Amino acid sequence: MTKARKLRELMARPGPIVIIGAHNGLSAKIGEEAGFDGLWASGFEISASYAVPDANILTMAENLQAAKMMNNTSLPVVADCDNGYGNAVNVVRCVEEYEAAGIAAICMEDNIFPKRCSFYAGVKRELADVEEHALKVRAAKATQKDRDFVVIARTEALIAGWGMEEALRRGRAYADAGADMVLIHSKSKDPDEVLSFARAWDRPNTPLVCVPTIYRTTSVDTLHKAGFKLIIFANHAIRSSIKAMTETLQTLKREMYTGSVDDKVVPLERVYQLVGVDKMKQEESSFLPSGSPGVTAVILAAGQSQGLLPLTEELPKPMLDLKGKSILERQIDVLNACGVKDVAVVRGYKKEAIKVPNARFYDNDEYATTNEVFSLFRASKELSGPFLFLYGDIVFERGHLEKLLKSPADISIVIDRAYAEGQRPKDARGVPDLVALKDAQEAGYRFVGAEAPHRVARVGRAIPAGEAHGEFVGMAMFTAKGARLLTDCYHQLQETRAKGGFHEAESLRSASFTDLLQELIDRGADVQAIDVYKGWLEIDTFEDYRRAWALIKE
């Protein structure tokens, strides 16, 4: 259905049609969201958005472009075309261009060219000859190709002070020339003029239009009962935006920090919603070559490291320098190299020191009395779709991440098989997180099949070393389904496990990530292990830190 057909259907239904003035695509979107029947491509608003008077200073092309921007909604657009941008020949071009652009209707007033805004005081105002404007109406109707296209004729006789009889004479002439609707304009502060016009109107097949900008206390219901079909709230979008921008910018200039206007601005997410960022993401996913795995990385960087004191007295471990870059920056470099651009970091200890660009931050201010699971769910907003899980104190080769991203499993973890083969470096870290697999191949054999995932049977620090097939590296990936399994499990545990131990932890609040993994396994979830062989390092001690400096080349 064309927008013109939508407008015709509105004209045929009982009740008033109420449309809102707009000046660009954004104001049009907000007008649609507010529930109006249509949009008025206001010459006043469009001129104001260019910071010029409403006096035919803008060209038809500039006004048409603004009206086109408003066609990004489902609403019909009624375009304020001033006086048709010239004589009847100009009107022909005007109708051709606006109709081709999908605009539902145009409105032409009988001011001479160049026009002046109806409400400008003290400016010269002349009206075109009534027959000349009637011929413009005829030209418009003869030019349109779509029978549903609407032509509204507007008379400024009351604005110019020419009286009611002249206003009626002009309105009748324009209706007789074929206008689909007639707009009577007034700058009186009460509605008596337009109500009198409506009482005297004797062209019942030509509905009336009004713009109650000045007689602002008159309701739509009153105007409709008087005989007006289309009511235009013509310029309130631009006027309200000017007020809001003035207050916001003056506050910013006075206070000189952006947080001073938090109560005056919408969140960025509101802008994203209005401009269609979600739709863009869907289109990118459907039609663009995949340059990104489409996952979010969630990095846990909340804990306080005792093993690296005094280095971590003033600096959290993930921000320790490794040859010019912090551990966290090195992680994000590898993520970005693999196409993972969405990164969320959970901070805690010395959180103000964790600063990296292009990352979202979540805070666990209870880091001293909680553990990894609690930290992970501080970033619960990031766990609704596919996501990567990373400890914030590991450095790893790009190939490890690439293997993890290729895993088809709903829940995958990376394990280092070097541990089972006695190749893991000895240090003072204590008992590592070990992994026991189901149907694992014999240690020491390297073959193509070793690249395939294997189902995890157990994970944690209590697994006897002789039964372990590898060490958990601190990297995991969850598909959307896997993320749902994880979050559902956690929320159920919150409701049912108020007190008591939880796997290897004293409570759910103090649970490690591996405790929650084991709970998923016990509930029947298929957790798959992705094998790697060395090529990573957890930095938890001075020996780890020294080794990292020695191994990292740049």
Automatic annotation (TrEMBL):
Boundaries of every MobA-like NTP transferase domain copy: 297-410
Keyword Transmembrane helix attached: no
TM regions (residue ranges): none
InterPro entries in the cross-refs: ICL/PEPM, MobA-like_NTP_Trfase, Nucleotide-diphossugar_trans, Pyrv/PenolPyrv_kinase-like_dom, Pyrv_kinase-like_dom_sf
Keyword Secreted in annotation: no
GO molecular function: lyase activity
Coiled coil: none
Gene3D superfamilies per the UniProt record, alphabetical: Phosphoenolpyruvate-binding domains (3.20.20.60), Spore Coat Polysaccharide Biosynthesis Protein SpsA, Chain A (3.90.550.10)
Entry keywords, A to Z: Lyase
UniProt superkingdom: Bacteria
Family statement drawn from the similarity comment of this UniProt entry: Belongs to the isocitrate lyase/PEP mutase superfamily. PEP mutase family.
Name of protein: Isocitrate lyase/phosphoenolpyruvate mutase family protein
Source organism (scientific name): Sorangium atrum
